[in-house]
Amino acid sequence: MEPAIKAKVDLAGLRDALSQGMMLRAEQMLADLNPAEAALLLESLPPAKREVVWKLLPPEDEGDVLAELNDEVRTLLMSSMDAQDLVAATEGMELDDLADVIAGLPESLTQQLIRSLNRRDRERLEAVLSYAEDSAGGLMNPDTIAVRRNVTLEVVLRYLRFLGELPRNTNMLFVVDRNDNYRGTLSIARLITHDPEASVVDVMDTAVEGIHASTSAAEVARLFETNDLVAAPVIDDTGKLLGQITVDDVVDVIREQAEHEILGKAGLDEEDDIFAPVVTSVARRSLWLGINLATAFLAAAVVGMFEATLAEVVVLAVLMPVVASMGGIAGTQTLTLMVRSMALGKVGPSNARWLLSKEFLVGAVNGLLWSSIVALISVAFFGGWDVGLIIGAAVAINLVVAALAGSVIPLILPRLGIDPAIAGGVVLTTVTDVVGFMTFLGLGTLFLL
Are 218 and 139 in contact (CB under 8 A)? Predict the structure, then answer.
């Protein structure tokens, strides 16, 4: 928690320094921040001040800061840099971070950056770029240390001393055969605590399985969490070692998943820049406002079908929001649990039918309970058992439909290529509003007129 608190203090101090024209003080403050804190500060500033602060950053830190920025802010900053400065900023950057940076560049600049690498790094980077960004191959760092099974630990130690440094977050080496196929791991702890004359095969661990390059980022995060991994090997179809994924990359995946679930409910993206220009923000948000407007008119059209009923029995208009609200809340509870469980890999074809049956029963029990309470309250406030029974029946039906819709919608939308975290809420609200109004006003028409 301390870095976040520090960043807030630095942001306030930086704003004061900028507003007072104290550029030297601002530059000193930036030099004291680590790349993640500097990135947070940049994301917390309007575009004009962001450009000023970017120019004050130490040149040697620019690449690391770029790697920490969200996609939109990073792209905007890189668009203001010339090719030579961009190549200099990315020099020495970890290849997995460089792959993220390149993804937001025009093709011409991408090729120029790739040509600036040596042949070995160029081939490794192209290997990372060949996989989807949200896959194990897209997350991996191809910079790994591999050793053979038949060498001694003393040979491995001499090899590490020759290299001089290890890839970041390295707590294990990967054991391969002569064809570079992954066979196991050798932890640094075992390497330095066992007899140097022992062979790698005698102390290696074969329990850590390789993660296929096509594995989704969500599944990678689940594997790291389940197996308490700090690093894991990435392999191809033949078992060849391609690279490694380290825990810092998985933490980023988990954070992005959490942000996606929260912002997706409002139709927003976790990479959106809160300080983006007005036109950009309006265009981005208008899509879902338009979709919501269309669904609202659909619900209004259902209500309009019962205009005569509402004119005769005004109390129905007063109670309509109760039916829609109860269905909306019940459906949202189920939808949220389903989307989260699907993201964690807990829900699939094997257990979907059981969950649907369970949610139907939950909706039915809640329907009986809360419809009784709503009916009694309606009788107490508005008098007449007829209205109470009608709204009770409508609430019961809507709660059952809401529970089923909250379960089915997140299962169907991915098959249509739609993210349920973003579109699920809009679809669910439409279903509960239409069913709730149709049921309530339909029953009112049948029994009160």
Answer: no
pLDDT of residue 417: 85
- The H helix count followed by the E strand count for the chain is 22, 6
Mean pLDDT check: name the lowest of 137-146, 279-288, 428-437: 279-288
- Residue 350 CB-half CA count within 13 A: 2
pLDDT digits (tens, 9 = 90+) for 406-449: 999 999 988 888 888 778 888 999 999 999 999 999 998 998 87
Give φ, ψ of 414 to 5 degrees: -60, -30
- With the C-alpha atoms ordered 114, 120, 124, 126, is the resulting torsion angle positive or negative? positive
- Mean pLDDT, rounded, for 373-377: 93
d(CA 52, CA 186) in angstroms, rounded, equals 47
Q: Which among 221, 241, 218 has a CA at the least distance from the CA of 229?
A: 221
Tell me, what's the pLDDT at 63?
82
Q: Where are the alpha helices (DSSP H) in 265-306?
A: 278-304
Q: Say if CB 63 and CB 89 are below 8 A apart.
A: yes
Q: What is the CA radius of gyration of the chain?
A: 29
Residues 6+ away with beta carbon under 8 Å from 223: 211, 215, 229, 232
- d(C-alpha 375, C-alpha 392), whole Å: 5
* Contact in structure between 335 and 410 (CB atoms under 8 Å): yes
pLDDT tens, position by position, 154-177: 999 999 999 888 887 788 999 999
Q: Tokens for 254?
A: 């988990």
| Residue 354 burial (CB count, 10 A) | 9
Helix, strand, coil shares, percent, the chain, to 5: 70, 10, 25
CA angle 313, 317, 322 (to 5 degrees): 130
Q: Give 57's DSSP letter.
A: S
Instruction: For helices 217-227 and 247-264, give the axis angle rounded to 10 degrees.
Output: 120
Least confident of 49-58, 190-199, 266-275: 266-275
% of the chain at pLDDT higher than 90: 32
Q: Are 413 and 387 in contact (CB under 8 A)?
A: no
